[in-house]
């Protein structure tokens, strides 16, 4: 089950199947799609937090039982991952435990990743003869670099939290009991920033990493921000020594 909760400008998606390590079944993938569609069409939302239930596993990827039965395939999972990554608002993965297989990629689909002490990751595809999908491999390479991608995918290496910090997979690491507070504070801070500027720089960063943004498109984002009410409000707030109230236009 995938739970969606919306609190003001912050959406929270929770993978809620802890007894199965928050593995994603076909039904779970369909729920994921439905929730992402709702988030995409809610103009008031400014941040998404993705987390898991329980204290052991963030996500173990697609349900192996259903993969073996043919109920879930790589394309179904990849479609969810691609849609998550394409959301135009910042995504924060609050990784409450270890991640395996596609669960590691779900973390990579987010812009920020916070983890807990004692967690680890492993993508075991090479250990049972599976070639990871090209779109997923590209995500590893663009986000972490080719050397780290090879450690995770080609060598199927098990990486501990300290390794994940060093390679840039994790941005923050904390004791498990502190993760909800840290993630909430970060999400609230992101939600108070100018949403148009945040979306613009997110789009430009991702576009440059993927090699898929033209200079003209980037300049259009910049020009839109420069002409926005948000910029005028932000500058006024600085002069008036108060917090800005952004409208996103």
Folded structure, characterized:
With 249 residues, the protein is an alpha/beta fold. It has two domains: 2-190, 2-enoyl-CoA Hydratase, Chain A, domain 1; 194-240. Helix content is 49%, strand content 16%. The protein is built from eleven helices and ten strands. Helix 1 (26-40) runs parallel beside helix 3. The chain is globular, with a radius of gyration of 19 Å.
How many separate domains?
2
> What helical percentage do the residues reach?
40-55%
CATH topology of the largest domain: 2-enoyl-CoA Hydratase, Chain A, domain 1
Spell the H/E element sequence.
EEHEEHHEEHEEHHEHEHHHH
- What's the pLDDT, averaged over the residues? 93
Strand order of the largest sheet: 1-2-3-5-7-10
| N- and C-termini, Cα separation | 35 Å
User: Biggest sheet, in brief?
Assistant: 6 strands, mixed
Number of strands: 10
CATH architecture of the largest domain: Alpha-Beta Complex
What gyration radius follows from the Cα positions, in whole Å?
19 Å
What is the beta-strand fraction? 15-25%
């Amino acid at each position: 089950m995938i739970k969606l909760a919306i609190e003001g400008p912050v959406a929270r998606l929770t993978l809620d199947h802890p007894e199965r390590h928050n593995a994603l079944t076909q039904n779970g993938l369909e729920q994921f799609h439905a929730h992402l569609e709702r988030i995409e069409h809610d103009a008031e939302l400014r941040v998404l937090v993705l987390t898991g239930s329980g204290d052991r596993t963030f996500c173990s990827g697609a349900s192996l039982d259903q993969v073996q039965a043919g109920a879930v395939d790589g394309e179904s999972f990849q479609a969810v991952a691609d849609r998550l990554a394409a959301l135009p608002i910042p995504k924060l993965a609050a990784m409450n435990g270890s991640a395996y297989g596609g669960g590691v990629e779900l973390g990579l689909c987010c812009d920020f990743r916070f983890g807990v002490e004692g967690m680890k990751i492993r993508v075991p595809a090479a250990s049972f003869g599976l070639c990871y999908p090209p779109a997923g491999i590209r995500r590893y390479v663009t986000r972490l670099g080719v050397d780290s991608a090879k450690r995770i995918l080609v060598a199927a290496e098990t990486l501990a939290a300290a390794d994940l910090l060093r390679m840039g997979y994790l941005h923050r690491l904390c004791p498990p009991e502190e993760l909800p507070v840290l993630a909430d504070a970060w999400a609230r801070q992101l939600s108070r920033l100018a949403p148009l500027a945040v979306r613009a720089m997110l789009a430009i960063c991702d576009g440059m990493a993927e090699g898929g943004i033209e200079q003209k498109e980037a300049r259009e984002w910049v020009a839109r921000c420069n002409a926005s009410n948000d910029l005028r409000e932000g500058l006024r707030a600085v002069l008036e020594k108060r917090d800005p109230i952004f409208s996103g236009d």
